[in-house]
Structure of Nucleoside ABC transporter ATP-binding protein:
Amino acid sequence: MEQAKTVVEMRNITKRFPGIVANDSVNFKLRKGEIHALLGENGAGKSTLMNVLFGLYQPEEGEIFVNGQQVVIDGPNKAIKLGIGMVHQHFKLVHPFTVTENIILGSEPRKWMGLAVDKKQAYEKVNQLSKQYGLNVDPYAKIDEISVGMQQRVEILKTLYRGADILIFDEPTAVLTPQEIGELLVIMRNLVGQGKSIVLITHKLKEIMAIADSVTIVRRGKVIDSLPVAGTNPNQLAEKMVGREVSLKLDKKVAVLGEPILEVDNLVVKGRQGLNALNGTSFVLRRGEILGIAGVEGNGQSELIEALTGLRPVSSGSIKVAGADVVGEKPRAISEAGISLIPEDRHKHGLVLDFPVRDNMVLETYYQPQFNKRGFLDYEAIGKHAERLVKDFDVRTPSIMTDARALSGGNQQKAIIAREVDKNPEVLIAAQPTRGLDVGAIEFIHKRLVEQRNMGKAVLLVSYELDEIMQLSDRIAVIYEGRIVGEVKPSETNDQELGLMMTDYKQKQGGAGNEQAD
Ligand SMILES: Nc1ncnc2c1ncn2[C@@H]1O[C@H](COP(=O)(O)OP(=O)(O)O)[C@@H](O)[C@H]1O
Ligand SMILES: [Mg+2]
């Protein structure tokens, strides 16, 4: 096969930040017409390398060649001149403006000898580009009125409008629904089909297998390998990314269901704006199962968790733990009734960052007799307790006296899980338990959750990650606008069906019979 020409070559790029070498003598080559994935865990140095290519950072060492010519990219304007465009993780759009106004911002076409902006020409060009690459963007729509997926396409159009031939996407699927991800992959294929070249930054193996032609793996700032995707597999990639063997498949034996332990009936709860966030939510969770709550963020998940843990008042309906209604009880009483929570936001609700790991291990139990002697905290007992949890849950910390703040995200999360599981709850609520964590930590946490379920505990998994829901759950309940609109088994559904249920429940009957939505 004929080798396509190299459009970008980065040689021995080193970029340092105080205390860290983000890119350590990195070599990277992008060929014309390919989708090249840049794979690595959080903090591996992926964004830094591409920010260097886009001129946002200046490397301390190394050379860059674009189309065979050595270049110095001293800012994004230079990158754009060289035909490089970047779609960032966080969009930079002006909301009250239209799509086209955003796209031309900073490079307005002029008429009347440069005295006025030629909007008509701009709208036409945006429309033409949108058609050419199958982006399906309305050039006249206001940014306020379009979905996140559409906003991302506006960012893509912006790079194309400025003449980009080399497009960098930084974790583009993180903010998208399953349908939108499918559409984005088609768009990327369209782009390379018409001669563009793409760098796709991601830590999702599934995406790489689905779309990329080649992959470069980085770990702790260094390139580990660069190879064609056709000759590799997810396990091999995971191993290179993490630096040790990882099992991607969970060993899950068949669930042994016990009696119902959490019964939520017709729950109505007000949200932040005073409107109903839960509109009659009902479901049952049994011992020995993992029930996954799937849904697009903002459909009542946070309010459900808050209501279940006593942090948000319930307007009507009931929550029964082992048969006893806990509605109206204080959080401590609910915790004692057997509900434990691995919270959504581990910094705000999971840990006190300025406390040592030791104290964080007894945040909710310090008043109990085993940690308390005649009204004084028994630090010896608390210390022993913390040492044991740190060891059992492989929390990597220099000592139990280290502040929680100093731990990595994965180790902070392990510490929370250790504490919550050790309370020996009836029901363990895991809210986004692996958000932002790397493959190694995800593997560990998933195993612990399955272990709890195998021990006969009930696990309620609330996650926006469909892969996680599909992998862990024994049963999936889909939440949409505060109602459970359907229940399915992972083995009997797929991403597409779940995606439909998550966005427009009318496509799927079943659920709690709430057909006359408002
Ligand atoms: N502007 C910055 N200042 C200081 N440190 C940074 C900066 N940007 C990134 N880093 C550090 O560099 C390392 C690589 O980060 P990054 O390139 O963002 O990783 P990735 O995109 O692979 O998750 C991390 O340790 C990160 O904390
Ligand atoms: Mg990044």
Observations:
- The first helix runs from residue 46 to 53.
- Residues 506-518 have pLDDT under 50 and may be disordered.
- The pocket of adenosine-5'-diphosphate (ligand 1) is lined by residues 17, 20, 22, 40, 42-48 (CB under 6 Å).
